[in-house]
Design a protein that fits this description.
Blueprint lengths: L1 H19 L3 E4 L6 E9 L2 E6 H13 L2
Antiparallel strand pairs: 1-2, 2-3
Length: 65
């Protein structure tokens, strides 16, 4: 019984860990470096950019307020 429970918990852990790291490592639309990136909406268009470029864009937007 303990062995089946351990296998079930291990399988669930592997599944959840696999779902959390789903960013694709490709070229960023802003800096053109190969990094992990996400899709963001900028001025009504969907762009793919890394977290560093997105943070810089957000900081620039905060300065313009």
């Amino acid at each position: 019984m303990k062995k089946k429970l351990f296998v079930l918990v291990a399988a669930a852990t592997v599944f959840v860990m696999g779902m959390t790291g789903c960013k694709k490592e490709t070229k960023c639309d802003a800096c053109e470096e190969v990094k992990k990136r996400d899709s963001y909406e900028v001025m009504g268009e969907e762009v793919w950019m890394c977290d560093d470029c997105h943070d810089a864009l957000e900081a620039l937007g905060d300065l313009m307020k």
